[in-house]
Inverse folding.
């Protein structure tokens, strides 16, 4: 495991801690790990590249 | 042949990116430019100068709540208020284009059956719409890393450059 030190907005931290306090997660580290995992799932390099390549083709040859 | 010009629903990111690149005027030939009130609030917070550009922007307050399906999709993909409000507008304007750069929101929009494009598409479209020359567009794209907060990996920017040059024999 890697240790990452970062700053998050107070409101975000409070929301994460609320989930921990309600018993949904063991601690805030688990909340942030899960959140990052989900973000990375939808922001894979290939997906983002495909979106941009589609944009290029629409820009060049679209009809609107 | 007359090309159809559509309504465009803009989210925060592309408006800011186009403003940073001095290209917001490229939206001027859409028949309507719609922004959710929450998107306007985000732009005011992060790049207020973008709202001073003379464009026929129409601010929409989302009166009807999002459908259950859209609400669920937005929660699954962790979309923010502005993205959700923009997609709610799209639900009532399904022939419009949704302008968005973030991958998650684009995924949701596509799954909802909406047409979605991003900042790069609008910039390159300017050649087709005769708003800019290919050389001017290449110059704008060249300025993306230094002038804007739109992050595109250098190899892909290079690929876009080559694609445009090839298309126009530059």
């Amino acid at each position: 495991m890697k240790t990452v030190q970062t700053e998050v907005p107070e409101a975000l931290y409070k929301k994460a801690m609320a989930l921990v306090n309600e018993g949904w997660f063991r601690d805030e580290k688990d909340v942030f790990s899960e959140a990052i995992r989900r973000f990375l799932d939808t922001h894979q390099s290939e997906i983002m590249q495909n979106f941009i390549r589609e944009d290029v083709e629409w820009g060049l040859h679209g009809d609107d | 042949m007359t090309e159809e010009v559509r309504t465009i629903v803009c989210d925060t990111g592309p408006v800011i990116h186009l403003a940073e690149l001095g290209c917001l005027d490229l939206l001027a030939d859409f028949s309507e430019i719609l922004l959710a009130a929450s998107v306007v609030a985000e732009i005011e917070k992060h790049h207020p100068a973008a709202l001073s550009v003379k464009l026929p922007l129409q601010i929409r307050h989302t009166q009807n709540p999002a459908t259950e399906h859209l609400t669920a999709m937005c929660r699954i993909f962790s979309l923010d208020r502005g993205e959700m409000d923009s997609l709610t507008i799209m639900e009532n304007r399904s022939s419009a284009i949704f302008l968005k750069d973030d991958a998650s929101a684009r995924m949701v929009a596509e799954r909802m059956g909406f047409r979605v494009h991003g900042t790069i598409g609008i910039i390159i479209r300017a050649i087709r719409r005769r708003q800019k020359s290919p050389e001017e567009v290449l110059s704008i794209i060249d300025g993306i890393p230094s002038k804007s907060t739109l992050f595109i990996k250098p190899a892909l920017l290079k690929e876009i450059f080559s694609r445009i040059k090839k298309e126009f024999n530059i």
Summary: The first helix of chain B runs from residue 12 to 20. Residues 42 and 110 of chain B are 23 Å apart (CA to CA). The domain at 7-119 of chain B is CATH 3.40.50.1010 (Rossmann fold). Chain B has nine helices and five strands.
